Fold this protein.
Amino acid sequence: MRPDRLHYSAGVAAGLLLISALLLVVSGPALAQTAAGSFLSVNGPVQIQRSGGATIGAAAGVGVNVGDRIVTGANGHAVIVLNDQSRLELGPASSITLDQFTVSGGAAATRVSLFSGVMRSLVNAASGGAAADYQVHTPNAVAAVRGTKFDTAYSENVIRPGYQGCEKYTDVSVYQGTVNLAPVGTPNAGEDVHAGYEATLPCDKPPTGGGPLSMTGAVSLESANAGGASFAGAAPGSSAAPVPACPVCVNTTTSTGTTR
Amino acid sequence: MAKNRMSRVCIALALVVALSAFSIVPAAHAQWFEDTYPGFFSLQTPGLLQVTGFGGGFVSDKYGDLQEGVQVEQSVTPYIGFFGRATGYQLWIGNGFESPLAPGSGSFPRLNFGRFQGGADFTLFPGTHLYISGGHDVADSDASIIEGDFSSWVFLHSQHPINGSFSTIYDYQNGVESSEIDLQAILLSTEKYMILGGVGGAMYFGGFLTNAQGQGGPDLGFYYRPWQLGVSAQAGYGNAHQYGQISMYKQLSWFE
């Protein structure tokens, strides 16, 4: 090969390399900023940390991109509608990152990381007629949805009775469909939680069995907002059953004439 | 006298032995206590205020009554709360009422009285509560009462948790003790509601009653989550012959 041709080929290759590098640099942020949805409503302090580094306040209508981190304040609450019409509802003091949102063949694949607080997911399972591919990752668990509506909550640095010193918990409350809750290290060793039930994954241990909603102490959007709508049954003494005791009281006061 | 002194000595000895046993392995006990009751001595933050409104009715061959009231409970620590309860009762007793509970033969006009109670709620374990309260009646009753209520849910992390509850009220005026026992399970849980089923009953003894009285039967409950509203009904047979009762409650709660 002639030396000038060699130089020419090397020049072309270098040019191509430069163009490719430029394309990568230009397309990198563009890929990271893939539009995924927008805020439907925002109450209280809610911030978006863009993948590029900028932090802006959230408001209804503001777009949400893949890679965004969304943080709600102590009284914050936000609803995000993704482009496949799935909804994410964030409770107070919550932090999430939208890691993935892709639509292929009409079906969406979504990955959300929950770092703190509680988030309700209303997954549009009918999107494209395909089964929902939707996962919520917390530091110690993966909640993979086979249904449509559920809460995921992650709590850290708290101790709950009965868990022997564990200080981090992922709670899943399922309202519709089924959610598979698994330790983050063994995603195939999960427990299916069905509609009407809730379960807790403490530390890196296997999840508990599903118990009826609002009974096991699991955190949900309702309990985070409304002060713990936990079900304990009727308040003792408030049922009608103790009522027959009252004729006994009246017996003394009327038949013996010892009223006050 | 000697017998009393002996009893006191025995109790004191038992206390000493129990305290000694507890102090032999303090580290193990401390760890068990910390695991079982984390944050026992800390205030609950945020605090929780719960209000339960309730009402119900009882009808039998012998008598019938209505009750309605409200209970307010304030958390103090994660394991202890204080509550106050006000209940109004209306009572009807018809002809032919031959039970020892009767105020006399014949029929009576409606009797009304109110009961005001206050006490503490101890959370012994998750889902297990002990309520201790005392109070006094006003209007057509003048009784002082003391009440203990124990309620425990077991198998909470299963599809069908089971609840056992026992309540007893002692009436200082007539010396009668009234107890209620109930065993029920969650039959079905969905996003919106739960259905509960079980058996329960009540028993009365002591005081002027020469024999224990009571009744019992199956019960069915329904709880609607969006409204935090529960309804339960029970029917059965006992000293008042056939009976039926229904009760409703509505719960509200707020973080402070």
Summary: Confidence is low (pLDDT under 50) at residues 98-105 of chain B.
